[in-house]
Design a protein that fits this description.
Helix 2 links the parallel strand 4 and strand 5. The longest helix is centred in the first third of the chain and has 14 residues. The chain is an alpha/beta fold and about 250 residues long. The protein has a seven-stranded mixed sheet, sandwiched between helices. The chain has one domain: Alpha/Beta hydrolase fold, catalytic domain (Rossmann fold, 3-Layer(aba) Sandwich). Helix 1 crosses helix 2 and helix 4 crosses helix 5. The chain is globular.
Length: about 250
């Protein structure tokens, strides 16, 4: 059984989209009206324990996400495709590249977790680890990662939606995987064209982190900083993000 997914478009350029820790297969919904559906076909896969795949059990790891993405591409009969990954999904798209480099055309990594994982201090780890069962922790993480500048009702909606559409066990296990995995040696020097997009108001994964990871590892990497966005530009600046992604995929 393949993972659940949403599909937009009918274009020749196939694009697999992998969501973040707080997301699911609906992550591109705010961007839909800005997508070029005659040019691209998008498949937004839900990870095991999330969204349309909420009932699917598994190990809940980055390795498993990559294997499931490749299985879905096979089921869709996609020989080659581009990848878009947000946050945790930005790590997962790199794992797909490591496993099947010949199939990957281009990558767009949106506020992504590097292939080396993310270091935490004790206080930060307590906040993130507690988010699986405490919605106030989820609210605090979303507020922090968007610069403490956005409306409280939206932050509450994002926190509640993530809690309602994911399984606690999956949410907790994925954190262990994306924070503590390190497969950077497998992708360093890969020539795939890759665009890294970060939000100007994201203190968690800012441009400085991307310069020391993605831009240092990938010889054909470029970086864009989106104004008026934090860690969730698909929600904060959907038209600008869609335009940036598709401009790069068309090159």
């Amino acid at each position: 059984m393949t993972n659940g997914y949403k599909s937009f478009g009918h274009g020749d350029h196939k694009v697999m989209v992998l969501h973040g820790w707080f997301g699911d297969d609906t992550m591109f919904d705010p961007m839909r009206d800005a997508l070029s559906l005659d040019t691209f076909t998008y498949a937004m896969m839900a990870y095991r324990g999330y969204g349309q795949s909420r009932a699917l059990r598994g190990a809940y790891t980055i390795d498993e996400i990559a294997a499931d993405a490749l299985a879905l591409a096979d089921a869709l009969e996609w020989e080659s495709f581009s990848l878009v990954g947000h946050s945790m999904g930005g790590m997962a798209v790199q794992k797909v590249l490591a496993e099947a480099p010949a199939r990957v055309r281009r990558i767009v990594a949106v506020t992504p977790v590097p292939a080396s994982g993310v270091p935490f201090d004790a206080e930060g780890w307590k906040l993130f680890e507690g988010a699986a069962r405490n919605i106030d922790n989820r609210r605090a993480i979303i507020d922090f990662s968007t610069g403490g500048r956005l409306a409280k009702p939206w932050i509450d909606h994002m926190a509640r939606y993530s809690a309602e559409t994911s399984v606690v066990e999956a949410f907790a296990s994925y954190l262990q995987s994306w924070a503590k995995s390190d497969f950077s040696a497998a992708i360093k020097g890969h020539p795939v064209p890759i665009k890294v997009i970060v939000g100007a108001h994201d203190p968690a994964l800012p441009a400085e982190v991307m310069h020391s990871t993605f831009l240092a590892w990938y010889p054909n990497a470029e970086l864009e900083v989106l104004a008026n966005a934090g860690h969730y530009p698909m929600n904060e600046t959907p038209v600008a993000l869609a335009s940036s992604i598709e401009a790069f995929l068309r090159e």
